[in-house]
Amino acid sequence: MESQENQYRWPKAEAVYPDRPGRSYALKRLRYRLRAFSHRGLIAQFEQFINQHPFLVKLLNEHADYSYPLVYRFLDKRFNRICDNLRFLPEKLTALSTPIYKTPLSFGVVIPDFEMTLSMTTHQPMEGYWVLELWHKPRNELVYLPTFAKLGESLLISVVQGPNFEGSKEMVKQLTKTCYGLRPAYLMVETMKALTKVLGFNQLGFKTLLGIPQKYQNKSRFIQSSHYVVDYDAIFAESGGQLKDYWELPLEIDRNLDDVPSKKRSMYRKRYAMLDDLAKLIEEKLGL
Fold first, then answer.
1. How many angstroms separate the CA atoms of 281 and 138, rounded?
2. What is the pLDDT of residue 223?
């Protein structure tokens, strides 16, 4: 008989919503149990699937909240591809010395004082399991992140999260200056474009980058609690996207400087060189 740690079973409500000092989650546990009961057939299939993949057994036993999106919502309420999304990066990035679901992969200091990492989310799994994070190294603070997922042959940006700590506005202003006028939210979108290109150019099938429309975006507790408002439609439109079912984002930047004022052309050239260096770092670190 297999030990409990080598088997996956649907987590109990107490594991997902334990009470905290001075705070009860009894109502959330009730909702969890009702959703689990109404999806019990799907849960049985999910348990069978997870138990066929030992690394997922360990992962989901360690992260009870990773299971809940199966019966609640995942990304934009219109599709449910959890099994595929849990597997696609670990099964593709086999050249890494440590599995991506265990340890964040650092792309290094991509901008002075700022490090970019790729990892499984520690935030809200309903927004996607994979995340790029931009860290301010001197203060060890998370500054920006996009969460993303696999959708068919595309990658989908489901969250763009910014900072809300003391001094964050000044940090964003300084970071924009360091990035030659490229604001951090747009830096993260451009990084996602580079990641998509690297994966696609290596026969992994990702030829398109999508952005989630504002009306479909799942508002997580993490964003609501910080009162951080993101205009997804504006970000993706200004990143060259075209709105169809999702925002379809071009993987290449229009680098024609003819319409750019001459005094700003040097800044744009430096910005493009910075993005090229970042793309090279991503390709080297992924080992593809």
1. 21
2. 42
Tell me the pTM: 0.86
For range 215-225, the mean pLDDT: 54
To which residue do tokens 């992924």 refer? 286
